[in-house]
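To whoever is on call:

I kicked off a structure prediction for a single chain this morning and the downstream step that reads the tokens threw a length-mismatch warning. I double-checked the sequence; it's 211 residues and nothing unusual in it as far as I can see. Pasting both halves so you can look.
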Amino acid sequence: TVVHKPFRLEKFMKKEGAELDDLDAKLKPGGASLLHRAIRRCEISVVEELLVKEEFTRVNARDRAGQTALHTACTARQRECATILLNSEKFQAVYKKDLEGRNPLHYLACWGDEPVAKLLLSHERFRRRHIETEDIFGYTPISLAADCGHTKIVEAIQEALTAKEGDDDEEEPDEEPSRPASPEAAAPAEGDLGEAEATPALEVRAETEPS
């Protein structure tokens, strides 16, 4: 259920156990920002409130799985939240990769959301090299879209690759997410919301193969 009511931020922070004067709180156990968690809980108005708060500086932050708020929107299939982020001037981390080497387009390719995929592909910060990024399993967004049968996504990616030919002349370094000290530190606690609960690429491929 999408919750879209005005001025819910304070109540939301209390529910999440965050101090009211700490908009940049890291929520346990996964190190999520308030923005990650608001998206996960479908709190649309909280997302919008956070994006206009000057005191909120973790707009582009990653959780302990290396995922940004846009990763969360895509893995949780929150189209409205993803659209809000992509249209926000404050959100710049459109191409960042998580610890599995995936940017948000990998997850959109599995999900099959054509409108959000096209919006991401048209973003000025999302370059050709980001479209062609391989995750740690060797899968690109277009290969995942093809395996999942999302032909419209495949076509949108092909069109974007053509349109963005040569757009990587001005290189901007793709900062890698920092890895936690141990695998246990990276994993959300059992029973938690799990900011990084996206389906692994190998599982997506396996599910789409004929029996």
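Update from on-call: the warning came from a stale cache, not from the record. Cleared it. Sanity check on the structure: The chain has two domains: 1-93, 99-164.
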